[in-house]
Design goal:
Blueprint: E1 14-19, E2 22-25, H1 31-50, H2 69-93, H3 96-101, H4 103-120, H5 122-125, H6 149-158, H7 183-196, H8 203-216, H9 218-221, H10 247-256, H11 271-283
Antiparallel strand pairs: 1-2
Helix pairs in contact: 2-11, 4-11, 6-11, 7-8, 7-10
Amino acid sequence: MTEHEIDEVTGQQTTGHEWDGIKELNSPIPRWWLYTFYVTIAWGIAFMIAMPSIPLVNDYTKGVLGYSQRAAVRADIEEARADQSAFRDRIEQSSLEEIRDIPDLFDFAVAGGKSAFSVNCSQCHGAGGAGAPGFPNLNDDAWIWGGKPAEILDTIRVGIRSDHPDTRFNQMPAFLADELLTREEVSNVVEYVLKISDQSHERDAAARGQTVFREQCSSCHQESGKGNRELGAPNLADAIWLYGGSRDEIRRTVSLARNGVMPAWEDKLDEVTRKQLATYVHALGGGE
């Protein structure tokens, strides 16, 4: 039998291994730790047998218990749909005005609309509907196509400049790029727009721009500049700007035009979800 040396400093047995004068002590792990390790191995083997675990070429082992997390999620979804079906049926059969007047139905519609908004709309309009340059703020009172519940619902359904046959559509000319106005005329009309929106402007240029505005812009934006919702022409006389109201941004808009696109949701979201979305958007506070 091999006799192991006892380390003089610690009084512990060595393994007999030595490197550059350093001797390795024989310090085995505690028994409880070793037994725990064996238990985890046994648990792993049992789990592998009982549950889906081993990937195959085109499938995986199902395990003796046949458990499926996908099936569990599917069952949870079906249960949730069953719980919601009564409310969804009522929303489908009710007008937006009726939904607004029934507290429990209104609360359910707003909750569902908020969820649908987070998934489908917040990427452009922001989590709270505050928008961003080029994407309308849904919290204020400025609505290009109207902010009544039915108008919001219709905008959601057909989109703006989308591929839907009934989409809301308008097109502002690129006055400079299309050579409809000279660079000087563009500058003058920009000064006039700054004037009617109560911003700092060059008075003489604005006076010249008023004539240009009347000839080229008033047919959509009206002579007052307050816009026309039937044509989707924004109000230029307030402080709310979709693409920015600075002199440079207005010049860019007049010169090159802006024609943003909102998708139509009629083929992507069912009628109940669209009603919930319209109810939620209107409830944000900017609806009419």
